[in-house]
What we know:
heterodimer; A: alpha/beta; Urease, subunit C, domain 1; 2 domains; 8-stranded parallel beta sheet; 13 helices; B: alpha/beta; Rossmann fold; 5-stranded parallel beta sheet; 4-stranded parallel beta sheet; globular
Amino acid sequence: MKKILKGARIIDPYSDIDEILDLLIVEDKIAAVEKNIDISEVEIIDLAGKIVTPGLIDMHVHLREPGYEYKEDIESGTRSAAAGGFTAVACMPNTNPPIDNAALIEYIKSRASKIGMVKVFPIGCVSKGMQGKEITEMGDMAKAGAVAFSDDGKPVAESGLMRKALLYSSMFDKVIIDHCEVPSLFENGQINEGAISTRLGLSGIPASAEEIMVARNILLAKELDARVHIAHISTRGSAQLVKRAKEEGIKITCEVTPHHLVLTEDAVLDYNTAAKVNPPLRTKDDVKALIDALRDGTIDAIATDHAPHCEDEKDVEFDKASFGILGLETALGIVLTYLVEREKIGINSIIEKMTKGPASILGLAAAGIEAGMPADITVIDPELEWVVDKNKLLSKSKNTPFNGWKLKGKAVMTIVDGKTVYR
Amino acid sequence: MLIGKHLLGLENVDKKDIENILTTAESFIDIIDRDVKKVPTLRGKTVINLFYEPSTRTRTSFELAGKYLSADTINFSPSTSSVKKGESLKDTAKTLEMMGADAIVIRHSSSGAASYLTNHVNASVVNAGDGTHEHPTQALLDMFTVKRFKGRLSGLKVAVIGDILHSRVARSNIYGFSKMGSDVYVSGPNTLMPFQIEEMGAKVADNVEEAVKDADVVIALRIQMERQKAGLFPSEREYSKLFGIDINKLSLAKQDVLLLHPGPVNRGIELSSEVIDGNRSVINEQVKSGVAVRMAILYLLIGGAR
């Protein structure tokens, strides 16, 4: 099986290529990347005007399996990922039961490979049962294929546990991903603490709740020379802390979600539960700081925190609604429309945050557009204008605050190991 | 008809609508003192009081308001203790509507519950207190009471004292009195003062004395004892010393100050017994105003003129 992707602009952050080239795929590998490849008996896909990139990687998704299959499962989640242009996702372990042992890591991997859509890299729990008490069998899980450890959804609240987890996980060179939030700094928090929480009478989550734990993680990473990855940063203060830590050479990385880059706390006015998410949407000033942090390289990855919830969990009183926003199918359109087109951040840099950035945090094998590499490819139509319709998403859930948004730019083909999984 | 279909809060109600409600209430208040307290205005209409939080006075006030206008009024109080087993608010509301409710009066512990209800029913929704968001009928009855005594609302200094953070009464009063041209000052422990309350139109006083000084109206809020357990203030004793309104603090206000409280009062904590029973207190008048204001709201929302 041979095919040529013809005439697309190839943007490859791994090799720093940005030019119009043809790409030959033979079986599951990239066979050649050259000008005007001309061979016979091959499927030719004309991609003039399109962009071809290494497969996009979303390092933060919730596939909900096992346990919450009514929200999403590995099949629907990976179909949704393929439709969003992702060829690989890393899934969080806050399932039921939580993914805290090697058998469950293997279960996720085998389910994903049977389904055969996109690659799934499981993340294992930091603590047994995600209870925040004892560390998990990280060695066993790493061997089974866990790419990182996290108690995401919850912070690793106990500093002592975090310290032990960092020391222990560093034996396997796996990063710990922390959802930063000091629980004692608020009670029953619903949205960002500020003018909007006051007006709506909703309990606020202060910026300091995130920033104090970001600072703690930086100090632990420094002291132990260990690697910490901060999940979904949402405040100016967090970005500043990470920036300063990086300047000091501390091994800290961080990600940002598309929703924290384009939405502010105003999105929850009228008690819109579709915009209820943790960390909460913050202020205009925070959004501006996050965009700057993306521009100056403080932020290493764009990750969606794809968090499916069924309608009955969102169509309720605001304080009873679940936290979370879908991300897989809207991420690319959002970043191309708002960051590339409006904020004039170079598309190469954005693609880097969705490919090489997350791959290097998770220690995934390089996967650039070069002969010999696996054929994991995303084809983007940068001019395609489309409207988000929550009823047409491939996810099982519909909890997007972007319903009805007009976006420009979309994945039009996703290829995993040479196989077209979305077109 | 100026008022819209629902009354969810005062944030989005303009001055004209507030005036309309207060004027209408004025025309109803005498009915309460009549021997035969009944007019046929809402005959054939059904009002359901859907109360998810315990409340005696607000529920009774709405119930009587409906009855005096000849509406069929029933109370529905889902058990709050079995929330897990209980029916969702959406399903309950739809059921009540199918039974023929013209208006649903809702009290609920979730901020935004009244507004949420309007997504699922066609009946008029009246917010009788939603979480820590708004309690518009309380603010309207406060304004009605003040207007009856002062003859006006514009140019008055109104001090709201206490747990502003958790108070839906404070929020509605800030919107309402500000829209009518009063200057609203708030004061309370910093731990119970919400962020950026100034953006709602209130001025934050440096201390309770500054708030009360030369005030025309002092509204003391009920303090919930569970806030002390949550560590938001150290003791009832210190709270009442610092923020309780007694004769000394009240003497800083204008001679003809009016003292209000949404009730029920914790005697000796937010107010001293002396001022509760003193000649500046209009706490009992507030109760009567409440019935008249709620009659006006039901009439304007589901009366024949719509």
